[in-house]
Design brief:
Length: 448
């Protein structure tokens, strides 16, 4: 069987690894239009903030490693067309301009995503940069040396992380967000206010409810918004990603945003084509519906599953809770599942409780405050999501809630699930137990 993998960042690399570990000798061909694979874009802010000394350390694989496993890897090769009916591809060698055809028995689409470039006048200014790949990361790092005032357009994960890195390296930072909060896909507004305050306390100028309408200027970039103009030496645009799926448009089922829809085996509507990573949807467990969530964690799991199931659908995709975390000025923010706002928009009869207390007994030499926001379904009492914020490391607690959402656990389960007690780590009831007990008490009191 001949397998062709189109695109090779996280999902593609995982797929090739899995195929050739399980089935050595399989004919695997990889086409990648860039000159590198497996770049961790989450490392851009770490490199900019000098937490990581070498950007090259953000690669965990390279073409030669895949070739050692037995794959044929064609870098700087762009797939121009896919004919799924006849199982043919048209490919261009970017270096030579030569165009040729290839065939496949099974196809794995891991073409990823590209930065969503808003149609704004002046966005082609050389002082306006995007943030996703290795080349863009190098440009962001080099320009930071000669530009003092940085404006970031977009208050998602990348925008907030970049704002911290620039602020920590003595830059003047302006963060402009179109909505009324930062990190709106991951946390509720009440939790977001903690992040906004933290950014402002560290000198970041945060402007909410300002939609950028244009860029102008020469020596400095003028950022025009619906409220006021801002000036900066350099602008980084972080306004999200779009699935790169044009090659299969009209040939497999896609959602309204153009992401490929997959089944429980990461298989598309064409049984000979599998998809993984930013090119496709995820099966989002809190809602039971497909959703578009371009995260590296989703990509590597889907890619590995594509490598398994391409030989026959044997291992089901467990889906995702979109669990994520970040460190910001010494604090940890972690989230999983649905926010209350999103839960209500999905039609759940949802509610939330907030736990705010020390993570361990106050008789210990030190302790830290902890805030947990737990979202749940009032009808069946299932946990829908959680957001955690503290100087204490709470990322693994988000993983615990993620597993509980995966397993359809309720607030009653969370209230009394077995967790260790040791004063170095928590109270006799762990803080996750306590937030569960808050939810149970709230429901009990409302029924009185």
């Amino acid at each position: 069987m001949k397998i062709v993998v189109v695109g090779c960042t996280h999902a593609g690399t995982a797929a090739v690894d899995q195929i050739l570990q399980d089935h050595p000798g399989t004919e695997v061909t990889v086409y990648e239009r860039d000159d590198n694979i497996s770049f961790l874009s989450c490392g851009i802010a770490l490199y900019l903030g000098h937490k990581v000394k070498r950007l090259e350390d953000m690669f965990y694989s390279d073409p030669s490693e895949l070739e050692k496993l037995g794959a044929k890897v064609f870098m700087k090769h762009d797939v121009l067309k896919i004919d799924s009916k006849n199982k043919k591809l048209m490919i261009e060698n970017i270096k030579t301009g030569d165009v040729f055809e290839d065939t496949y028995d099974k196809l794995i689409m891991t073409t990823g995503s590209y930065v969503q470039v808003p149609p704004i006048v002046g966005i082609d200014n050389s002082k306006i940069l995007m943030c996703k790949n290795y080349a863009q990361a190098r440009e962001i790092y080099e320009t930071a040396k000669t530009h003092k005032h940085i404006a970031i357009v977009g208050g998602g994960y990348i925008g907030v992380e970049l704002a911290e890195s620039y602020a920590n390296t003595d830059h003047e930072v302006t963060l402009i967000q179109a909505g009324d909060q930062v990190l709106n896909h991951y946390i509720d507004k009440e939790m977001s206010e903690n992040i906004t305050k933290l950014l402002r306390d560290h000198g970041v100028n945060v402007f909410l409810n300002e939609r950028v309408s244009g860029f102008s200027g020469d020596d400095q970039v003028v950022i025009e918004t619906n409220k006021e103009d801002h000036k900066a030496d350099l602008v980084i645009v972080c306004t999200g990603f779009i699935a790169n799926t044009e090659l299969l448009r009209g040939q497999v089922d896609m959602d309204r945003r153009g992401a490929i829809i997959i089944n429980e085996y990461v298989q598309t509507s064409n049984s000979d084509i599998y998809a993984a990573g930013d090119a496709c949807t995820v099966n989002f467990n809190p809602t039971g519906k497909p959703a578009y969530m371009p995260l590296a964690t989703n990509a590597i799991r889907q890619g590995a599953l594509a490598g398994v199931n391409v030989f026959g659908n044997t291992q089901k995709y467990m889906g995702t809770q979109a669990t994520s975390g970040m460190e910001l000025f010494g604090y940890t923010l972690a989230s999983t599942g649905l926010t209350l706002k999103n839960a209500l928009e999905w039609g759940f009869n949802a509610d939330a409780v907030v736990y705010h207390d020390y993570y361990r007994p106050d008789y210990m030499p030190t302790t830290e405050m902890l805030t947990i926001r737990l979202v749940y379904d009032k009808d069946n009492r299932k946990i829908l999501g959680a957001q955690l914020f503290s100087k204490h490391e709470v990322a693994q607690s988000a993983n615990t809630i993620s597993v509980m959402i995966q397993n359809n656990n309720t607030i009653d389960d969370l209230a009394f699930i077995d967790m260790l007690f040791q004063p170095n780590y928590d109270n006799p009831f762990n803080y996750l137990n306590l937030v569960g007990q808050l939810a149970v008490a709230k429901e009990r009191n409302e029924k009185k």
